[in-house]
Amino acid sequence: MPVDVLFFGAHPDDVEWGVGGTALLMRARGVSCSIVDLTRGELGSRGTPDERKHEARVAAEFLGAQARENLELPDGGLEDSPANRMLIARAIRRHRPKFVVAPLWEDRHPDHAAAGLMVRHSALYCTLKKTDDPNPPHPTEGFSVLSAA
Question: Scanning 1, 9, 11, 16, which has its CA 20 to 30 A from the CA of 104?
Answer without folding.
Answer: 1
